[in-house]
Every structure is written in structure tokens, then in C-alpha cells.
Design a protein that fits this description.
By secondary structure, this protein is mostly beta strands. It folds into 2 domains: 24-156, Sandwich (Jelly Rolls); 211-350, Sandwich (Jelly Rolls). Helix content is 11%, strand content 32%. A hairpin with a 7-residue loop joins strand 24 and strand 25. The chain is globular and about 65 Å long. 33% of the residues are buried. Bound molecules: fe (ii) ion. Fe (ii) ion binds next to loops.
Length: 368
């Protein structure tokens, strides 16, 4: 007996816009209370005191804040370590309190408040609290998408030794596709044929565990304040991981950006297919998303941009705002699905496949 069947979609009309998850805000007070609750627990066997920010629309058994982004609140008490683990999901970590050491394969980083770091896929890792107060971090993971695809592989380990079979890739020869003795060749008008030998040996690059120290990032970021009120772009830096190449990511799925907003800056309304999650760590302001206004302040975590909704952000009078934003933009560039509309009076573009957008910033080295 089989229940596989055909679904007749003949003549079925396009379904229109998706049913977006609405914005949600986890307030600083809620996050602080959850940190306190995690700290008060008896140490779990694997050492991971962890709680997932869960959107009310997230499916049971696969909690997440955006459909493709899981954010967890991870806590370690002084002297504690987590048990080693590895998985096929990739992560971005961001410290929000205390200090700790993250060992990822052969790489060790000492990290603290507002430092960011990435986790390559399938490398064993563990965390240790090296300070005298709780070490608290946010972890952004693409696991929900892999779970939906039913291919999220996770292994508990006894140590973080990189298995000898897992050799780190070295830069390939300039273009293995063309130097392969089996050859990839053109049929007509750009259509090509590639042999199996190249299919199973794609160009590879070392996937490194990188760290972006807040002290250094802040120094560069604060200089963007000089761009002045007439600047139409965003005053931010992407924590760029060269491994992600043309998709401009921190991990292959996500970018993380750090933004400075001087007081009273109002962004232009825009929209993009990538989902955005903002963690504000200084100042206050508001966002208008899908016509509704949301106010936020330092210590709040907000799912700000669901799907294709029109939105923009603004800082209040007074203090400058710092925020870290994670979006699943690299994933959407790789899928050729990143529709972006920077100016609502102009058509949207498929970023990565069409020319992108320009700002009114003067190029470095120009005297104009
Ligand atoms: Fe946006």
C-alpha cells in the first residue's frame, strides 16, 4: 500500500504574498530574568544552560525566532565548561556579559561583551567561562532550515580534536575546473558540461573560525558618525568572513552587521526578502514594520523584518544607538531569491544577480 500521489495544480493561480510571522520583541527585563533562571539551574550533564527565543508561530519541536534563524541565550557560570559537540549548522556568536574562551577545532578565542565570532560547519567546539561572573552570549544558527530539510546532523563528542579524516581545505589551484584532466567544456551560449570528477571535488577554501573584537570594531564604527545627516546609507560594518565570497556573509547563511545610529537618524522605508533580527545594546529608538510602530531600547532583541514587509528604523534624541543585526541574506543571495527594494519608488532588484544600490558617500581617496 502506498500513499504517494499526484497533486493536480493545473491552472492554479499564484498564491500572492506569504503569511509572514509578525515582529516580536524580547525586552531586556525578560532576557535578564531568563539569564537569572538559567543561572539558578543545577548544572546539566552537557554543561549547556541554554534557552531559545521562540516566536509564537514557530513549529513545535523546532523553536526559532525567524523561520530560518534560531537565536539562543547561552549561559555559563564561573569555572563551567560545555561538553564538546559538532553539527552541520553554522553559527554566529555574540557576547553580551562576562568573559569566556571558545575552542573551535584548533582555534581558541578569548571573548567577552560585544565580541562576535563564527562557527564553521562540523568543527568540534566547547566553551569555558574564564571570568568571575556569568558568561552570557547570543547564538544565531541556521539549524531550523536544516531541520526542515531533515538533514541537521549533530554529534556529542568527548573532546574537540579534529578527526584526522577532516582535513582542513587548502586553497585550490587557480581554477580546478579548467585544469581538470577530464575537463569542463562549453556546449553553446554558456551552457557547459562538467564531469563527475569535478562535481565531487569543488573548489575549496579553508573555513576559519574568526573573531571580531568589539574594541577594534567600535573604533572603526565610531568614525562612521562623521558621515553626517545627509548620508542616505546605513552607518554599519558587516563582520565579513572571506570564506563567504560573493554572498557577503559572516557565515554562509547569515551576515552580522554592527550599526551606529547617531541621535535622531531616521532610515528610509525599504524591504528585503532576508529576515532581520536586531539586538540593541545602547540607546533607544523605534521601528515601523508593516505600518506598525515598535519602540525599543538597549538590551532588547527584536525580530524586525519578517519576509518582504516594508520597514524602517530610527534613533531617539539623546544617546547614540549600537545594534547587531543578523539577516539570512547570504543564503538568499546563494538561492538567487534576495529581492531588495531600497527605494520604494523604484523597482526591486535581485541582489547578487542584478546591479545593487549606491549611496551618496564620497569614495575613499576622492576629494569630492
Ligand atoms: Fe531592513
Amino acid at each position: 500500500m502506498t500513499d504517494h500521489h499526484f497533486t493536480d495544480v493545473t491552472g492554479r493561480p499564484a498564491i500572492g504574498e506569504p503569511d509572514y510571522w509578525e515582529p516580536v520583541i524580547f525586552r531586556r527585563s525578560e532576557i535578564d530574568a531568563e539569564i537569572d533562571r538559567l543561572c539558578a539551574l543545577e548544572r546539566p550533564g552537557n554543561g549547556r544552560r541554554s534557552s531559545v527565543f521562540t516566536h509564537p508561530r514557530a513549529p513545535a519541536g523546532s523553536p526559532s525566532l525567524a523561520p530560518g534563524i534560531r537565536v539562543s541565550l547561552d549561559v555559563l557560570l564561573p569555572g563551567e565548561s560545555t561538553a564538546p559537540i559538532r553539527h552541520t549548522s553554522t553559527q554566529f556568536g555574540f557576547g553580551i556579559a562576562g568573559a569566556g574562551r571558545v575552542s573551535i577545532g584548533d582555534t581558541v578565542h578569548d571573548v567577552g561583551r560585544y565580541d562576535g565570532w563564527n562557527h564553521p560547519s562540523w568543527l568540534p567546539y566547547m566553551y569555558t567561562n574564564t571570568g568571575d561572573e556569568p558568561f552570557v552570549r547570543l547564538t544565531y544558527s541556521n539549524a531550523p532550515l536544516l531541520e526542515r530539510m531533515n538533514v541537521h546532523l549533530v554529534e556529542d563528542l568527548t573532546d574537540i580534536t579534529v578527526p584526522s579524516a577532516q582535513q582542513k581545505a587548502m586553497p585550490d589551484e587557480p581554477d580546478a575546473r579548467r585544469t581538470s584532466p577530464y575537463g569542463t567544456f562549453e556546449l553553446a551560449d554558456g551552457a557547459m558540461l562538467m564531469p563527475y570528477e569535478t562535481l565531487v571535488n569543488p573548489p575549496s577554501l579553508p573555513s576559519l573560525a574568526l573573531v571580531w573584537a568589539w574594541d577594534e570594531v567600535k573604533d572603526h564604527l565610531d568614525r562612521l558618525e562623521a558621515l553626517g545627516e545627509s548620508y542616505v546609507g546605513r552607518r554599519l560594518y558587516l563582520l565579513y568572513n572571506p570564506f563567504t565570497g560573493r554572498t557577503n556573509g559572516t557565515t554562509p547563511s547569515f551576515f552580522a552587521t554592527i550599526t551606529i545610529r547617531p541621535p535622531s537618524i531616521v532610515d528610509r522605508p525599504h524591504r528585503h526578502v532576508s529576515a532581520a533580527i536586531n539586538y540593541f545594546f545602547r540607546g533607544s529608538g523605534w521601528s515601523r514594520v508593516g505600518g506598525r510602530k515598535y519602540e525599543w531600547g538597549a538590551g532588547d532583541l527584536m525580530f524586525t523584518a519578517p519576509g518582504w514587509m516594508i520597514h524602517h528604523h530610527a534613533s531617539d534624541d539623546g544617546d547614540r544607538v549600537y545594534e547587531v543585526t543578523v539577516q539570512d541574506q547570504p543564503l538568499n543571495i546563494a538561492m538567487e531569491s534576495l529581492l531588495w527594494q531600497e527605494d520604494l519608488k523604484q523597482p526591486a532588484r535581485v541582489l547578487g544577480a542584478e546591479g545593487g544600490f549606491a549611496t551618496n558617500r564620497t569614495p575613499i581617496g576622492s576629494s569630492a
